[in-house]
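User: I'm writing a tutorial on reading structure tokens. Could you give me a worked example: one chain, its sequence, then its tokens, then a sentence or two explaining what the tokens reveal?
Assistant: Sure. Here is the example chain.
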Amino acid sequence: MSEIISADQQHIQFNTGSCAGPVAVFSRKLDGNMSLHHGDTGASLEHRKTFLEAYGIDYRQLVCAQQVHASGVYRAQAQDRGRGAMEYATACPATDSFITGEKNIPLAIFTADCLPVFLYAPQYPCIGLVHAGWRSTAAGIVAKTLACMREAFGVTAQQVYAGFGPAIRQCCYEVGAQFRDTFPGQVSERQGRLFFDLVAANTAQLLAAGVRREFISDCGICTGCRCRDYFSHRRQPLPGGRMLSVMMLR
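And here are its predicted structure tokens:
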């Protein structure tokens, strides 16, 4: 697994050998709070508009989720454009992952320590965008998303490229003893304290499902270490804001 994003870049570049590909971007704290449900939401729509204009995306067309830290996967279609874009109440309920095979449908998730997982199968083409916190990861959300992509579009995991956005890393993610049973092999101990590797847990799911290791890329950004630059639920006072991750076929 390689790091393919510098600290100043905000987009995922899949190692497909081609410059063409989907829009796959994430915001920073400097771009403002993007959530309509967390933190100071007064300027969130303007933040979305300004951030997405650079990528040719209409913020009013976003397809958003009412994220519940579970394993719900939703297949977005043309009629879903705008769900949750202007009001949280209209977002897709009980959803933490999206898939689509249609162009110009901007999928959106919101994070502040949880892991955004970008999935892309160029042969179809189709995409997936996953909100992977520890609960969703324990529920196997990445593996479930890959299974839904296979069922909907006929692509195998071996054809899928994956990219990880900013998230809290093992250096900062202190957890309780129960994590050892939930995530065997992904919890380390330092000076009597336990730390969970969220990225390793999701990498293991991808590999077990059949994704090729050389097709997995990671931005390497820790929201805990870099809480000045990225929202971190664990490192900053509540109520905090959220970053926006967006993926769209062109």
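What the tokens reveal: The chain is about 20% helix and 20% strand. The chain has one domain: 2-167+197-248.
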